[in-house]
Design goal:
Layout lengths: L8 H12 L4 H8 L3 H14 L16 H13 L5 H12 L5 H10 L15 H14 L4 H4 L2 E10 L32 E8 L8 E3 L5 H20 L4 E3 L9 H9 L3 E2 L12 H15 L16
Parallel strand pairs: 1-4, 4-5
Antiparallel strand pairs: 1-2, 2-3
Helix pairs in contact: 1-2, 1-3, 2-3, 4-5, 5-6, 9-10
Pfam family, one: HTH_Tnp_Tc3_2
GO molecular function: DNA binding
InterPro entries: Homeodomain-like_sf, RNaseH_sf, Tc1-like_DDE_dom, Transpos_IS630-like, Transposase_5, Transposase_Tc1-like, WH-like_DNA-bd_sf
Length: 308
């Protein structure tokens, strides 16, 4: 929520004049770009006292001027990783104003600025960006019928003990380390299973348990030949196969096999965003598994085979 703008004395007088001329309070607030509550309080004060000046406010006066407040905001936006102590030193050099770090944070909070962890995204080269744009332009006008002919595929890793740092617990102050509010972790997730699958609007392959390292030969012989090609044949001659740019998927033996089998393969941009709808399916599957099988408290047992 942006900081509330204060009206100067001229604007307060104009607001009262408009109101006396019959302009509704909401319209007055719109013209002055303020909340209607500001206008309501102003009219109430004018009706009670006949004055538009603000009453004296109790408390300690601000040590910074509006100009210095804007400078603090500008310093934070110029170097967004600068801490409050760094901004404090820069302000002291620029204006000879000496205030503490909490005051710096208060001023920035007044501008709706918070010091938070940065969002993380993959670094993209100009070639990556161009490939993304080209992909979007090729498919932006695809119809539901065309997308229904795409067989989306991907692998996903499921761990027995999962922590996405989004878990929250209710606890009393000073009770952080009681058993009821502590989440135990197991090294490397306590074991995992890697699965592969593919699906379209009307078809899907069996869920395949990937054991060990996946190579191009295994991808061809264990997934493409027995699972993907028969499914594409069921979908019809317009079927398109989608997989990402993982090294086993782009091996020469895989490319040769798909070409010999007459498979239409979708060009997938490198370092692509998660446009594959199977990501949503993996998330739903993960939630279902965890709701039926809560994490164990002791040493985890081996996970069952997920094939089929």
């Amino acid at each position: 929520m942006p900081p509330r703008r204060k009206l100067n004395e001229f604007e307060r007088g104009r607001a009262v004049a408009w109101f006396q001329d019959g302009v509704p309070k909401r319209e007055v607030a719109r013209r002055l770009h303020v909340s209607i509550s500001v206008i309501v309080r102003l009219i109430q004060r004018f009706t009670a006292t006949g004055r538009v000046q603000e009453r004296r406010r109790p408390g300690r006066p601000k040590k910074t001027t509006p100009r210095e407040d804007r400078l603090i905001e500008r310093l934070a936006l110029q170097t967004r990783t600068a801490s409050s102590s760094i901004i404090r030193r820069q302000l002291r050099v620029a204006t000879n104003t000496n205030i503490n770090q909490q005051t710096i944070r208060n001023r920035l909070h007044g501008f709706n600025l918070r010091f938070r962890r940065p969002a993380v995204r993959q670094r993209l080269t100009p070639a990556h960006r161009a490939a993304r744009r080209a992909f979007c332009r090729r498919h932006v006008r695809w119809t539901r019928q065309q997308w229904s002919q795409v067989l989306f595929s991907d692998e996903s890793r499921f761990t027995l003990n999962h922590n996405d740092d989004r878990l929250r617990v209710w606890r009393h102050q000073g009770k952080r380390y009681i058993d009821a509010t502590v989440q135990e972790k197991v090294a490397f997730g306590g074991g995992f299973v890697m699965v592969w699958g593919a699906f379209s609007l009307h078809h899907r392959t069996p869920l395949f348990h990937v054991q060990g390292n996946l190579t191009g030969l295994r991808y061809r012989d264990e997934m493409l030949r027995p699972l993907v090609v028969p499914t594409l044949q069921q979908m019809g001659p317009q079927a398109v196969y989608q997989d990402d740019n993982a090294l086993p998927h782009r091996a020469r033996v895989v490319n040769d096999f798909l070409q010999q089998s007459g498979v239409n393969r979708m060009e997938w941009p490198a370092c692509s965003p998660d446009l594959n709808p199977i990501e949503n399916l993996w998330d739903e599957l993960d939630r279902k598994v965890r709701s039926n099988h809560p994490p164990s408290q002791g040493c985890p047992a081996p996970l069952p085979d997920a094939t089929g």
